[in-house]
Amino acid sequence: MIRVAVINLGCPKNQVESEYMLGVLEESRLELVSDPRQAEVVIVNTCSFITAAREEALDTILELARAASHPRIIVAGCLAQQYASELWQELPEAAAFIGPGATGRLPEIINRVLKGERVLDVPGPEMVTGGLPRRIEDGKPFAYLKIAEGCNNRCTYCTIPAIKGPYRSRPLEKVVAEAVFLAARGVKELVLVAQDTTAYGLDCYGEYRLPELLRRLASIDGIEWVRLLYAYPTRITPELIEVMTTVPGVVPYLDLPLQHASEGVLKRMGRPGTGAAGLRAIENLRRAIPEITIRSTFIVGFPGEEEQDFQILLDFLTAARLDWVGAFKFSPEEGTVAAGLPGQVPEEVKEERYQRLMLHQQSITRACNEGWLGREVQVLKEGPEVGRSMRQAPEVDGVVYVKGDPSPAGSMVTVKLTHLYNIYDFLGEIKA
Ligand code: SF4
User: Fold this and answer.
1) Quick one: which of 83, 125, 201, 352 is 20 to 30 A from 211 by CA?
2) Which CDD domains does this UniProt record tie to the protein (predicted)?
């Protein structure tokens, strides 16, 4: 039997695509192996969001090409979607380039590659994947649920709209059906992802349907938590807040990428609002949901960012007291408006500001976490002695270590948070 491995690079949305690939391959009776060195065919599901991601993808492909097992290499994902025609010439090591829209044709593509054919199958970004068989890791208590593809926002630094096309919501019934499928496989937590989850429905239903979708997902048997990532700051509607306050299972957690707080920088980013508007949005959320956990992400070193702009950002973080923060150094991407803007910031200044921001936020995150010590919280176990509370999204926020608790992944236990293990992680004791 032909052995196939899938290497997933990039964001949670790419992870969902890789799980669709695994689902299609599993159904077509190809043997799935987790170690690429054991495989005759390796699919690299690439990210192309920023230069560093593309370099990681090319390094992975070239390393595979040098492997003693000489696997046939299929390049999938955003790098193929964006650069297949150029790479067709420049990367002869790859036997095929496929876009997300070709996932359903993978078995046939693998057959053609094994016969020595080179394959280029990159349908336009108009394709909405989903509705495909999906294979998730056994026993994993959470799963990302992609509710839409593409983006209609026009942030000046971002390549996503060019790679993924306009915003396309997945039909509500298809999203719910996939969630039921995941619940039947033991998933307890659904983590909603898209480029902009809050725009869900406007494109195909003419209205925002995220509140309704959250209600439907939270009512599925077996689903304990529904978590929302990638919310857009100007689309936190009263209906969304109402659902987050009244529907059991919709966790009081919001990932709200703000990117900056200086009005001038936000304007050049093509992003809405100001730092003051961002603070008001956060205050409104906290007034409605006092115990909400808020995560955000910021870009430092954007063209034209002066020291006083950066100081505005630090002051914003002090005032906002966000629970979790991620930060990126600006990366000038080919074809974006921001790459051509004057006032490009030197790399060493970006690095210095990145370090200062993370250090500044660490004391805030520590103080937010210390505020929860002594509290009893629900913890979704990810394995013996470790899990996450509602305040912790998978793979980006901290965890809770529960010494001596053997309950398996997927168990929901009550834990008293006793100590901080470090800035991000907790120690706790099981409560009977
Ligand atoms: S919201 Fe902005 S940063 Fe996010 S995917 Fe859309 S264009 Fe890119």
Assistant:
1) 125
2) Radical_SAM (cd01335)
Q: What is the 3-state secondary structure (H, E, C) of 203-228?
A: HHHCCCCHHHHHHHHHCCCCCCEEEE
Positions of the chain with pLDDT under 50: none
Instruction: Give the domains, in start order, of the chain with CATH numbers.
Output: 3-121 (3.40.50.12160), 142-370 (3.80.30.20), 376-430 (2.40.50.140)
Rg for the chain, CA atoms, rounded: 22
| Structure token digits, residue 407 | 């309950």
> 169, 203 in Cβ contact below 8 A?
yes
- The predicted model scores a pTM of 0.95
- In short, whether 165's Cβ falls inside 6 Å of ligand 1 is no
Q: Give the pLDDT score at 1.
A: 87
Is 155 a pocket residue for ligand 1 (Cβ < 6 Å)? yes
152 lines ligand 1 (CB under 6 A): no
Query: Measured in angstroms, how far is the CA atom of residue 335 from the centroid of ligand 1?
Result: 14
Q: 249 C-alpha vs ligand 1 centroid, how far in Å?
A: 28
pLDDT at position 125: 67
- Residue 47 among known ligand-binding residues: yes
The pLDDT, as a whole number, for residue 386 is 97
Query: Given this model, what pLDDT does residue 130 score?
Result: 63
pLDDT of residue 124: 78
Find out whether the beta carbon of 23 lies less than 6 Å from any atom of ligand 1. Answer: no
Residue 186 and residue 136: Cα distance in Å, rounded? 10
pLDDT at 76: 97
Give the pLDDT score at 128.
55
The pLDDT score that the predictor gives to residue 149 is: 93
**d(CA 158, ligand 1 centre) in Å:** 6
User: What's the pLDDT at 291?
Assistant: 96
DSSP notation for 70-107: --EEEEEEHHHHHHHHHHHHH-TTEEEEE-GGGGGGHH
Distance from the alpha carbon of residue 4 to the mean position of ligand 1, in angstroms:
33
